[in-house]
Design brief:
Elements: E1 11-15, E2 21-26, E3 29-33, E4 59-63, E5 66-70, E6 75-79, E7 87-90, E8 99-101, E9 106-110, E10 113-117, E11 124-127, E12 137-140, E13 146-152, E14 155-161, E15 168-169
């Protein structure tokens, strides 16, 4: 197991592991920081296969004391020591969508299906409805609502779901148009003239 040097780190996350860790990875390379991003270290054990196409497919997530990274080729790596040592597993499909932590399990999405795991080691699959949905970039709210972006014919389509299984496509009137969306996150911000507080 090894990694390249000098390649682009395309995704970065923060996990509340032993006071907090940043994990950044992409293009065969992975680094971590345990001092609020002041210094960065390369892991002692890591498989570059888990970073395949990481800029647009798969992702990194943290939950239940474990960091998990899934590449577009269906390899999943997990670390329980904050990113220093990773173990590789194989998911039986290429991953085309995002990886998220739901609060109880990791989910890695592909065309019409997702793979779930509570520990990043053992994965099982479940079909989505409709069976052609691919929530490429997605997020989940603290209330459990899933939001995903499905790219089709060079256009971003917005989907939402209450369980991450059955998805509803929003009408075009529910969102504007513009450049391609590459990330979706959940969070709270102070209301403004453009983003007002819901009544």
């Amino acid at each position: 197991m090894g990694q390249g040097s000098g390649s682009i780190l395309r995704k970065i996350i923060f996990g509340a592991h032993e006071g907090g860790r940043f994990i950044a990875a992409g293009d065969g390379r992975m680094m971590y920081s345990n001092d609020v991003a002041k210094t960065w270290k390369a892991p002692k054990q890591f498989s570059s296969e888990c970073t395949y196409m990481l800029g647009s497919e798969g992702g990194i997530a943290y939950g239940n004391g474990t960091f998990v990274m899934v590449g577009g080729n269906g390899y999943a790596c997990h670390s329980t020591d904050g990113g220093d040592r990773w173990t590789r597993e194989k998911i039986p499909a290429a991953i085309r969508g995002d990886l998220i932590w739901t609060g109880s399990e990791f989910r890695a999405y592909t065309n019409g299906r997702f793979f779930r795991s509570s520990d990043g080691k053992t994965w099982t699959s479940q079909a989505t409805t409709p069976n052609n949905i691919l929530p490429g970039f997605m997020a989940i709210s603290d209330a459990g609502t899933f939001v995903g972006i499905h790219r089709e014919n060079q256009t971003d389509h917005f989907y939402r779901s209450e369980d991450g299984v059955a998805w509803t496509r929003l009408p075009a009137t529910a969102h504007g148009t513009g450049p391609r969306i590459w990330r979706v996150v959940f969070g709270y911000a102070e209301p403004s003239a453009s983003c007002k507080r819901a009544e």
